[in-house]
Amino acid sequence: MFGASRDATPREIVVQLLARREYSRAELAQKLRQKAFESADIEECLDTVAEQGLQSDVRFAESFVRSRILRGQGVIRIKGELRQRGIHQDILSEALASVEASENVDWFELARETLARRFSSPGENPKERARRERFLAARGFDFEQIRYALSCL
């Protein structure tokens, strides 16, 4: 897998993975555990690549937030997915704040744009309206953002 020989070192595997995209420390640890490396070797390797700047949970989180915003996902879903990937709350909050500031993210407008890409009207009846609400809720938008998006269609 990943073009590595059977006797590839943890570092070689990590470098090959990071050459493709950013990974969280927890994701890399999981991949190395799947290759049956010892926990001590995994931790040592991950400490080293982090010290060398090859891997950073902060950089991963910011990149992840940007990619999910481009997909039209809301803050609730983004936070949940980052937690699943082993990103701690403080890094998660810092990454969200950083991207919100640098990209001028307006979650209400993002909810509106996401809804408008999928639906042309707020719904003719309560059943259709509920379908649109569920769509945005599944995307990670909160009640106020959903209400705003529906009011704009």
TrEMBL record:
Query: What taxonomic classification does the UniProt entry list for its organism?
Result: Bacteria, Pseudomonadati, Pseudomonadota, Gammaproteobacteria, Oceanospirillales
List all membrane-crossing ranges: none
Q: Which family does it belong to?
A: Belongs to the RecX family.
Q: Which Gene3D superfamilies match?
A: Winged helix-like DNA-binding domain superfamily/Winged helix DNA-binding domain
UniProt-recorded name of the protein: Regulatory protein RecX
UniProt subcellular location: Cytoplasm
Function, as annotated: Modulates RecA activity.
PANTHER family named in the record = REGULATORY PROTEIN RECX FAMILY PROTEIN (PTHR33602)
The RecX first three-helical domain is annotated at: 11-47
Q: Where is the RecX third three-helical domain?
A: 106-150
A Gene Ontology biological process in which this protein takes part is: regulation of DNA repair
Give the domain of life: Bacteria
The reply on keyword Cytoplasm is: yes
Keywords for this entry?
Answer: Cytoplasm
Q: What residue stretches are annotated with the RecX second three-helical domain? A: 56-96
The gene that this protein is the product of is: recX
Q: Name one GO cellular component term.
A: cytoplasm
The record's HAMAP family line, in alphabetical order, gives:
RecX
The cross-references to InterPro entries, in alphabetical order and at most eight, read:
RecX_HTH_1st, RecX_HTH_2nd, RecX_HTH_3rd, Regulatory_RecX, WH-like_DNA-bd_sf
